[in-house]
Design goal:
The protein folds into 2 domains: about 5-235, 3-Layer(bab) Sandwich (Hsp33 domain); about 240-280, CBS domain Like, CATH 3.90.1280. It contains 9 helices and 13 strands. The protein has helices at about 20-30, 35-55, 105-110, 140-150, 185-200, 200-205, 210-220, 240-250, 250-260, and strands at about 5-10, 15-20, 60-70, 75-80, 85-90, 115-120, 130-135, 155-165, 170-180, 225-230, 235, 265-270, 275-280. The chain binds zinc ion.
């Protein structure tokens, strides 16, 4: 099951949020027909976006993550909200690259490292908060670590992983973000560093274990207490009304063309591949 857990150490100085996202990553793979390297790229981004979305408390608030490193993947866009709904897509889902020398999928090669990671927190009212960092490697976890270091101003480690099976299905996926809170004793940084190292690859823990197992390993010896546990899923909110709104926002010339042709247009939702057929008369037009 897809789950998000938020925990704090017994002394209150270490917090960790972990997610298990195999099913929702598999859903993304099915919708977008992702190649293995793109399953790993989008899957890692979805896991991190789910973790950031957890910090949104208000209904209607959402977080949008955009990653573009100039690689063949193009832009990767992920959206999450406080209710645990996550969705995303990559501009190019069909990227195929040779494995790296260590036998791993070349996510950094697909994403590229010449670009930015941008996080937009839309709290539902007022101007959204926008933060961005230059990509470190395009491997995504390192890039989010850099983002957290800058935006949270506290020592933070982020690990993400997607294990793709030989039949291309997702065998395991998820990740965690662990950070030291202000005032933490300096020795704690060493403990965390050792724990993160001992935890090893996220997918080897999640291949059999769950998000709680991740928390227990990353916070070993720190008496973790789970503060929140919620299910998360891949869900798109697109609707005919929203699609109409977006299409009506294109230029007046394009709208006139559509009306003159008199034929329905098909609009595909990038997040879930739902197809909407819009009749020309449905499009609001400004009278001339
Ligand atoms: Zn949709």
């Amino acid at each position: 099951m897809n789950e998000l857990l938020r925990a704090i150490s017994g002394d209150g100085y270490v917090r960790c949020t972990a997610v298990a996202t195999r099913e929702l990553t598999e859903r993304a793979r099915e919708i977008h027909d992702l190649t293995p390297v793109m399953t790993a790229a989008l899957g890692r981004a979805l896991a991190a976006t789910a973790i950031i979305g957890e910090s949104l408390k208000d209904d209607g608030a959402s977080v949008t993550v955009r990653i573009n490193g100039g690689g063949p993947a193009g832009s990767i866009i992920c959206v999450s909200d406080s209710a645990g709904n996550v969705r995303g897509y990559a501009q190019n889902s069909d990227v195929e690259l040779p494995l790296k020398v260590n036998g791993k999928l070349d996510v950094g090669g697909a994403v590229g490292s010449n670009g930015m990671l941008t996080v937009v927190r839309d709290l539902g009212a007022g101007e959204p908060y926008v933060g961005s960092v230059a990509l470190v490697s395009g491997e995504i976890a390192e890039d989010f670590t850099a983002y957290f270091a800058e935006s949270e101003q506290t020592p933070t480690a982020c690990a993400l992983g997607v294990l793709v099976d030989v039949d291309r299905a997702v065998a395991a996926a998820g990740g965690y973000v662990v950070s030291l809170l202000p005032g933490a004793p300096v020795e704690l940084a060493d403990v965390l560093e050792r724990n993160v190292r001992d935890t090893g690859a996220v997918t080897s823990v999640l291949n059999g274990g769950d998000a709680e197992e991740l928390i227990n390993r990353v916070m070993a010896g720190l008496e973790p207490r789970v503060l929140e546990r919620k299910s998360i899923e891949y869900r798109c909110y697109c609707s005919r009304e929203r699609v109409l709104e977006v299409v009506s926002g294109i230029g007046e010339d394009e709208l006139r063309d559509i009306r003159e042709k008199g034929e329905p247009i098909e609009v595909t939702c990038q997040f879930c591949d739902a197809v909407y057929s819009i009749a020309p008369e449905e499009l609001a037009g400004k009278t001339e």
